Amino acid sequence: MLGTDFNSKLEGAGFYIIVIFLLFYSFFPALWLLLTSLKKTSQIIHVPIEFFPDPVVFSQYKEVFSKAPFDQFILNSVIVSLGSTLLCIFIATLASYALARLNVPGKNVFLVSFLLISTFPLIALMVPLFKIFRELSLLNTYWALILPYTVFSLPISIWILTTFFREIPDDLEEAARIDGCSRVSALVRVIFPLSAPGVATAAMISFVNSWNEFTLAFSLMSDKSMYTLPVGITYLKDQYTVPWGLISSGIIIAIVPLIILIIFFQKRLISGLTAGAIKG
Amino acid sequence: MKAFARTFGYFSWSNIKRLLQGDLTEKELMVILLAPAVLFLLGMVIYPLIRVINLSLHTVRLSMPWLGTPFVGAKNYIKMFTDPRFYHSLKVLAIYGSGSVLFPTILGLGMALVVNRTFPGRWLARAAVILPWAMPRALTALAWSWIFDTSYGVLNGSLMRLGLIQESIAWLGNGQLAMFSLIFTSTWKTSSFVALILLAGLQSIPKQLYEAGTVDGATGFQAFRYITLPQLKSSFLIALIFRTIVAIQVFDTPYALTTGGPGTATEPLSLYIYRVTLNHLNFGYGSALALFMIVMTLMITVFYIAILGERE
After folding, report:
1. What is the pLDDT, as a whole number, of residue B19?
2. Interface predicted TM-score (ipTM) of this complex, two decimals
3. Distance (Å) from the C-alpha of residue B176 to the closest C-alpha of chain A?
4. What is the mean pLDDT of chain B?
5. Which of A59, A94, A132, B146 lies 20 to 30 Å from B51, alpha-carbon distance?
6. Chain B residue with Cα closest to A262
7. How high is the pLDDT of residue A279?
8. Tell me, what's the pLDDT at B141?
9. Neighbouring residues of A13: CB distance < 8 A, sequence distance ≥ 6
10. pTM, rounded to two decimals
11. Where do the domains of chain B lie?
12. Coil, strand or helix at B71
């Protein structure tokens, strides 16, 4: 008995070493950016390396707003991400209701074609989209990003919402309709609120997708005042001496909303992300 | 076109009034609910797809408008199959792709096994697993390019402090090291996704299997080898296929980490498509390259759907 106890303690210690390694590995880049962003530039390029900021300064954060139109980048990212998320959830709700509750002929054709678009290479679609948006004079407008982002978040949103809608008992909807609700008001008043967790999950995932997207934002927006955060920050690197302090503080600002989502909604994100793949 | 007009017909004012009053037939309701999704799909995927096929059969050079846009048939494709830089980009893609499918799978399995256990502080470990997924790919690559920086990077700085190296290593300045750094960065970013898929798989394994195993006297490793791994087979397959599709298309990571360099040592197909279309403004040839990538992705997706179909 004593032996097994010792063994499991040893195994426990080994397990925690692995956990600590995992934490270090995953958090290190963000941690290092945070440390860099709090240093003076002279300390950032000090050789030999100094790991901790001394003194702690916030000048990099102030400077990133004055050296680049950083508030404009934030605004652009917010508009594009919120716009595409709202549009995506609206369209996905309608489609998912039909797929979950009505007798759609060829239902699988829909689901499979949504699966197909979710695997389409953005860089390859960028080529015709650039031409099309140029002809429509939509380059350097928010629509050039909102429209494609909406489509690329549709598949996973539809997967998640269809699953949620199916789980709501038919009786609830029927009760509402006996009370005089139309199908649409039953959808708005009964199904949609009851699926709030699913809607929230789909909205979060589509927000993160849009917030992080780089390929199209980089290719379709050439006007500096239209850059989103990832593009604006990446362009900071295109200088003779790379301003690592500004880049670090910029990245930290860009990932704050993501970190908040992870801390408060991690379970929901995990279940939503795997829903499409596993149930597919 | 007729079908289009008919679809729009459903959106007449009287229908919208009837929709709000709730006396539409089920068929009318269905069309109205599905139409926005289908229209978006047609406008943002199918129409661009038709355009890219069309563009690839023409000479389209935005920098030389005097050439016009004559039909040239297979000329762009002939150019592609005789273009050494195209083959080079495929070779880069093959090396990068195999690394960034293999390593995230191994690491993702490890992560999934860790967070599948119950232990104090598990939420923190779980946050560590999803953080890389949530980070923007381009900014992740920027962060790593700062870590790998030759003069001031923390990797070289730490190795020197520890006395393991005397001179700085140019992690991104030498072809082979740059490829290593690229695969490393991609592995960091994408292991999360594999871990989440495998975690869902682990949680769906019936507990009774392990109980039966314990009764039969299986050790921990035997249970892992003979229960866990076989039960995870389909999750592995899903993760592998998704990883392959994403790896083929990746643009942000190599762009923000190495911009394809040094030279073209880390320039996969995606970066070459970008160069041809937006730097050289050669949309005809770029479309042929883009179509090659689309077909490659579609083939893998069809394979994926076939496997899923078999499972059901």
Report:
1. 65
2. 0.90
3. 23
4. 88
5. A94
6. B127
7. 42
8. 96
9. none
10. 0.90
11. 2-56, 75-311
12. strand
Task: Choose the closest CB to A102 out of B26, B37, B201.
Answer: B26
Q: In whole angstroms, what is the distance from residue A235 CA to residue A54 CA?
A: 28
Q: Which CATH number fits domain B75-311: 3.30.310.80, 1.10.3720.10, 2.60.40.1180, 3.30.460.80?
A: 1.10.3720.10
Instruction: Answer whether B248 sits within 8 Å of A121, measured CB to CB.
Output: yes
> Which among A44, A95, A121 has the least Cβ separation from residue B34?
A95
pLDDT in tens, B8-32: 566 666 666 666 666 677 788 888 8
CATH node for A68-244+252-279: 1.10.3720.10
Task: For A151-219, give the DSSP string.
Answer: HHHHHHHHHHHHHHHHHS-HHHHHHHHHTT--HHHHIIIIIHHHTHHHHHHHHHHHHHHHHH--HHHHH
d(CA A188, CA A194): 10
**pLDDT number for residue A74:** 96
Residues of chain B found within 8 Å of residue A158, distances taken between Cβ atoms: 37
pLDDT of residue B113: 92
pLDDT digits (tens, 9 = 90+) for B181-212: 999 999 999 999 999 999 988 988 888 888 88
CA of B242 vs chain A CAs: smallest distance (Å): 8
With a CB cutoff of 8 Å and minimum separation 6, the contacts of A218 are A230, A231, A234, B138, B252, B255
Min Cα–Cα distance to chain A from B307, Å: 11
Closest CA to B284 of B83, B76, B80: B76
AA letter at A232: G
Quick: pLDDT tens for B66-94.
888 888 888 999 999 999 999 999 999 99
Alpha helices in chain B (DSSP H): 2-9, 13-21, 26-41, 47-56, 75-81, 84-116, 122-134, 137-147, 154-161, 175-203, 207-215, 220-223, 229-231, 233-249, 252-258, 269-274, 283-311
Inter-chain touch B252–A183, beta carbons under 8 Å = no
- The letter for the amino acid at A128 is P
Q: Which residue has the higher pLDDT, B302 or B54?
A: B54
Which DSSP letter does residue B302 get? H
For chain A, residues with pLDDT lower than 50 are 1-3, 278-280
Q: Sign of torsion, CA B32 B33 B35 B36?
A: positive
pLDDT value of residue B300 = 85
